[in-house]
Structure to design on (261 residues):
C-alpha cells in the first residue's frame, strides 16, 4: 500500500478541517434561499482567494461556485482521455446530490451520489454497484467527519475509515482498518479555506475529485507519511498567504493555483 489515500479513493469510487463558514448542522434545517444559491445556481462569487483553477502536471481543475461560495460545478480536464465533471445540488442549505460524468466523450459514465441525513449521520447511496455504493459518514456536532463505513452491496464487503485532527482541525490521522496514514501541516491558509461548505461535505467532495487537495482546507499538508519514506510538499504563497504553487515527491505531483480576486 504505497498510497493510503489512493487506495481509499479507488476503493470508494471506481477527502485542519473546519466548517468554513457554511451551515455546520448536518441535519437539514430549512431556511431561506440564499439569493438562489440553494439550487447550486452558479451565481458569480465576489469572495477573494477562492480557487477557480488549479493546473496540475496531469490535467486542470476548474471550479465554479454558487452565490454563497459553495461548489456548483468542478471540471477536471485530463491530459489523457478521462475527464470528470462534478455537479452539486443543494436543498434547504445542505448537499443532496453529487453527480459525476466520467470518461472520454465517446464512452461517458454518470455516477450519482445521493445524501440523506439523520442527526449526526450522513447516509450516502451511489448508483454504481461495482463501487462501495452504501456509505455512512459519522460527524461531530460541527459537521466534521469522524468515521466513514463503506459497504459494497454487490460483493458483500465492508471497510471503515477513521479520522483524527489537531487543534487547528487539520486531519492528522487517516486510518483504514489497521493501517494508518499521518499528516503534518504548514501554518498558512488552506487552498479551500474560503469555500463555505461543512467540513464533511467539502472533504467528501474534494476527495472524489483529487485526493491530495482534500487535505488543503484549513492549512496545507507538508508531509504525508505511510511507511519509512514520507511524501513532502513545498509551497509558494501569495501576499495573503494562500498557496499559489506546490511541488512534491508524491508521484511528482505539482500544481499552480489561480484564485478569484
Amino acid at each position: 500500500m504505497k498510497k493510503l489515500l489512493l487506495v481509499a479513493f479507488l476503493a470508494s469510487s471506481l477527502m485542519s478541517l473546519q466548517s468554513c463558514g457554511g451551515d455546520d448542522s448536518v441535519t437539514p434545517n430549512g431556511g431561506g434561499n440564499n439569493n438562489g444559491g440553494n439550487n447550486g445556481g452558479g451565481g458569480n462569487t465576489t469572495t477573494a482567494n477562492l480557487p477557480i483553477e488549479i493546473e496540475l502536471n496531469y490535467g486542470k481543475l476548474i471550479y465554479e461556485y454558487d452565490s454563497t461560495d459553495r461548489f456548483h460545478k468542478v471540471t477536471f480536464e485530463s491530459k489523457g482521455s478521462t475527464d470528470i465533471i462534478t455537479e452539486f445540488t443543494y436543498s434547504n442549505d445542505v448537499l443532496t446530490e453529487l453527480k459525476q460524468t466520467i470518461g472520454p466523450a465517446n464512452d461517458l459514465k454518470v455516477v450519482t451520489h445521493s445524501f440523506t441525513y439523520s442527526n449526526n449521520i450522513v447516509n450516502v447511496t451511489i448508483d454504481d454497484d461495482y463501487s462501495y455504493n452504501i456509505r455512512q459518514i459519522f460527524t461531530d456536532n460541527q459537521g466534521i467527519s469522524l468515521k466513514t463505513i463503506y459497504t459494497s452491496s454487490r460483493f458483500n464487503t465492508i471497510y471503515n475509515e477513521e479520522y483524527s485532527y489537531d487543534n487547528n482541525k487539520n486531519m492528522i490521522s487517516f486510518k483504514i482498518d489497521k493501517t494508518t496514514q499521518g499528516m503534518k501541516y504548514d501554518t498558512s491558509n488552506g487552498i479551500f479555506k474560503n469555500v463555505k461548505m461543512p467540513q464533511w461535505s467539502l472533504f467528501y467532495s474534494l476527495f472524489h475529485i483529487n485526493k491530495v487537495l482534500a487535505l488543503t482546507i484549513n492549512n496545507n499538508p507538508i508531509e504525508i507519511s505511510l511507511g519509512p519514506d514520507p511524501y513532502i510538499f513545498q509551497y509558494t504563497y501569495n501576499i495573503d498567504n494562500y498557496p499559489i504553487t506546490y511541488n512534491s515527491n508524491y508521484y511528482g505531483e505539482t500544481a499552480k493555483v489561480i484564485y478569484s480576486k
Remarks:
- Confidence is low (pLDDT under 50) at residues 1-42.
